[in-house]
Write a structure and sequence with these properties.
- This protein is of the alpha+beta class.
- The chain has a domain of about 55 residues.
- The protein has 7 helices and 12 strands.
- The strands form 3 sheets. The chain has a 6-stranded mixed sheet with strand order 1-2-3-4-5-10, with no helix packed on it. It has a 4-stranded antiparallel sheet with strand order 7-8-6-9. A two-stranded antiparallel ribbon has the order 11-12.
- α1 runs antiparallel to α6.
- The longest helix is centred in the C-terminal third of the chain and has 48 residues.
- The termini are far apart.
- One of its GO terms (cellular component) is membrane.
């Protein structure tokens, strides 16, 4: 049976080798509450590593069931992926707690080059102010950040240039303090805010729908433009465009040949081995039965007693010769 186990193991290995590398093993996937995920992205634990491009790993949050992305400078805190536009190569991310200004303050989007494949087209400098409830004099463009405020203080975000101009106009002397807007407010930090989010920040306050991230590598725009799927070739060395209809027509020819070879040869060997094993068992069973029958036959047969020679009366009828002590024929007296 050890030979049969070896054949079956080899069979499974060959099938795995020829089937797994095909594009049919990388179908689109998604989290329960997330967008469709396909190349260059991949869902960890649900899609093979070769189904995605390095740096494009996404995850499913076990609690919220949303799709999440981790940036290199986000202090381990992930972003929720809201949408992915594969034609424009853009995705929209948001903070899980719906407080993107907090992520601006911790500089989650200030990623140096070569640490992440994602880029933000442009930024705008903002100053964040921490003001007491008594503060009434603020720039017209100041936006109230409710998710960072409480009953004891209020946080505002103001474009840096407009804040500086406002501060100069309110300063009683030619040398105003650059770090305060009066005794009731102080500058928390000056940070870069993505331009798209900055527009929403000025209009809606902290109710920002998300931040747009773009990527240029891998460039799948050509594949998308001609209606083909983008992905890695067999050895993951370059980007190729594949026909999505080909996936429904069955396996590639190379995979079919591989399966024929992988299944045919081990299958024939398995059949021969199984037939040899069955024949051996049958022969052994037949020899054992014949031995048992021979033993039972010998045990049942009784040995025949054959008596040969003359009977007693016939022997007594013959004349007798008397021998002496010297074993000689005695002479008559």
């Amino acid at each position: 049976m050890a030979a049969l186990d070896l054949f079956f193991s080899l069979l499974l290995l060959l099938i795995f080798f020829f089937i797994i590398p095909t594009r049919a093993s990388c179908p689109p996937s998604s989290c329960p509450l997330g967008p469709i995920v396909s190349f260059p992205f991949r869902l960890q634990r649900f899609q093979l590593r070769r189904c995605g491009y390095p740096g494009f790993d996404l995850s499913c949050d076990n609690e919220t069931l949303q799709t999440t992305l981790s940036l290199s400078n986000s202090s381990g805190n992930k972003f929720v992926v809201q949408t992915i536009d594969y034609d424009l190569q853009t995705l929209i991310v948001n903070d899980p707690d719906h407080c993107l200004p907090k992520r601006f303050l911790d500089r989650s989007f200030d990623n140096p080059p070569n640490t992440t494949p994602f880029r933000i087209q442009s930024f705008k400098m903002y100053k964040f102010l921490n003001c007491s409830p008594q503060a009434t004099s603020l720039p017209d463009t100041a936006s109230n950040i409710l998710c960072l405020s409480d009953e004891n203080h209020t946080v505002f975000a103001v474009p840096s240039g407009e804040y500086d101009n406002w501060l100069k106009s309110k300063a009683p002397s030619p040398s105003p303090s650059p770090s305060s807007s009066g005794p009731l407010c102080e500058v928390i930090s000056s940070v870069l805010v993505p331009a798209t989010a900055a527009h929403e920040l000025g209009v809606f306050g902290d109710a920002i729908e998300g931040v747009a991230l773009t990527w240029s590598t891998p460039n799948c725009s050509l594949c998308e433009a001609i209606g083909r799927d983008c992905g890695l070739n067999r050895d993951a060395s370059q980007i190729v465009c594949s026909d999505p209809k080909a996936k429904t027509k069955g396996l590639p020819r190379s995979a079919k040949y591989g399966i024929i070879i992988g299944v045919g040869i081990p299958g024939v060997l398995c059949i021969l081995g199984l037939a040899s094993y069955v024949c051996g068992r049958i022969n052994a069973y037949g020899r054992r039965n014949r031995s048992n029958m021979d033993l039972s036959t010998l045990a049942s047969q009784q040995p025949a007693i054959v008596v040969v020679g003359l009977d007693g009366p016939t022997i007594e009828s013959y004349p007798k010769t008397l021998l002496g002590e010297s074993r000689r024929v005695a002479q008559a007296q």
